């Protein structure tokens, strides 16, 4: 899928618009679109593709909170053939309300998308809606994390978890920290933390998981000391804990029947198991 205007194939917001048209109109998954020949051949920089992914994943994550908010601020419903303009508006709202992008950049860059789609008539609408959000100092409501859940998921969580459901719903859309796994058999964790500090990367040991380091701020993996040499990998603390709970002695034979991409398999192998 090359989209209608190849000249915009390096613009991260325009790419995100084309991705979301595939997701919302054609029912494709984000992984499917990101792995497509079209996406893989884009001339955009690594940084711009990162912003495109952020916007695309973010819109999917926050759709059920942002779509009703947008509907309430529209002077009249858009036509079905203008689904692209609806997505343009959602991209603008996501930048303003979730990413906290600077107002000038968020509004101007979003308005430009209407011109890229050859729908100049929509530029005034997009500008008015987004500037109205800024003027009214609109924010996502305190229960926006709950609104961001599809109704069927929210109802099931509320049914299954009762009084704990609010805290679960509030937590489910929070960004997880970037967590590293250190092979403590090969790398001294205190020395590695000192190396991170020398590189200007703030981090600390995980309070519960041995060998896990939590970064204060996510960063490019290429900037992590020893990453290219395999001294450290990125792995969620819960995933690290799962492997540790097996308590596999060296030489234990383990079948990992659902390895994708194999982080826990490698962790078990590092501990001496035959995986």
Helices and strands in order:
Layout: H1 12-26, H2 30-34, H3 37-40, H4 46-73, H5 83-97, H6 103-116, H7 121-135, H8 144-147, H9 151-161, H10 165-171, E1 179-182, H11 189-198, E2 203-205, E3 212-215, E4 232-234, H12 237-245, H13 263-270
Antiparallel strand pairs: 1-3, 1-4, 2-3
Helix pairs in contact: 1-4, 1-5, 4-5, 5-6, 5-7, 6-7, 9-10, 12-13
Give your account of this protein's structure.
Strands 2-3-1-4 form a 4-stranded antiparallel β-sheet, with helices on one face. The protein contains 13 helices and 4 strands. Helix 1 packs across helix 4 (46-73), helix 5 (83-97) packs parallel to helix 7 and helix 9 (151-161) packs across helix 10. The two termini are 40 Å apart. The chain has helices spanning 12-26, 30-34, 37-40, 46-73, 83-97, 103-116, 121-135, 144-147, 151-161, 165-171, 189-198, 237-245, 263-270, and strands at residues 179-182, 203-205, 212-215, 232-234. The radius of gyration is 22 Å and the shape is elongated. The model is unreliable at 1-7 (pLDDT under 50). Strand 2 and strand 3 form a beta hairpin. The protein has 275 residues and is mainly alpha-helical.
What share of residues is helical? 40-55%
Uncertain runs are 1-7
Placed side by side, the strands forming the largest sheet appear as 2-3-1-4
Q: What value does the Rg take, in angstroms?
A: 22 Å
Q: Which of globular, elongated, flat, extended, rod-shaped describes the shape?
A: elongated
Tally of DSSP helical segments: 13
Portion in beta strands: 5-15%
Q: Terminal Cα separation, in Å?
A: 40 Å
């Amino acid at each position: 899928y090359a989209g209608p205007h190849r000249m915009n194939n390096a613009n991260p917001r325009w790419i995100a618009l084309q991705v979301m048209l595939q997701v919302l109109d054609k029912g494709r998954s984000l992984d499917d679109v990101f792995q497509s020949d079209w996406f893989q051949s884009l001339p955009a920089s690594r940084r711009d593709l990162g912003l495109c992914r952020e916007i695309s994943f973010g819109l999917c994550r926050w759709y059920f909170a942002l779509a009703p908010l947008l509907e309430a601020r529209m002077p009249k419903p858009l036509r079905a053939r203008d689904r692209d303009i609806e997505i343009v508006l959602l991209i603008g709202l996501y930048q303003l309300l979730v990413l906290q992008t600077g107002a000038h950049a968020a509004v101007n860059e979003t308005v430009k998308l209407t011109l890229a789609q050859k729908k100049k008539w929509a530029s005034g609408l997009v500008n008015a809606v987004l500037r109205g959000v800024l003027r009214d100092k609109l924010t996502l409501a305190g229960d926006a994390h709950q609104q961001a859940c599809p109704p069927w998921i929210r109802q099931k969580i509320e049914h299954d978890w009762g009084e704990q459901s609010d805290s679960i719903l509030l937590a489910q859309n929070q960004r997880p920290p970037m967590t590293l796994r250190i092979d403590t058999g090969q790398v001294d964790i205190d020395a590695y933390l000192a190396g991170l500090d020398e590189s200007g990367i703030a981090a600390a040991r995980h309070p519960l998981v041995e060998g896990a380091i939590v970064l204060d701020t996510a960063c490019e993996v290429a900037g992590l000391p020893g990453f290219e040499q395999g001294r450290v990998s990125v792995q969620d603390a819960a995933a690290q804990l799962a492997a540790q709970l097996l308590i596999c002695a060296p030489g234990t034979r383990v079948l990992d029947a659902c390895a994708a991409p194999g982080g826990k398999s490698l962790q078990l192998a590092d501990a001496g198991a035959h995986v």
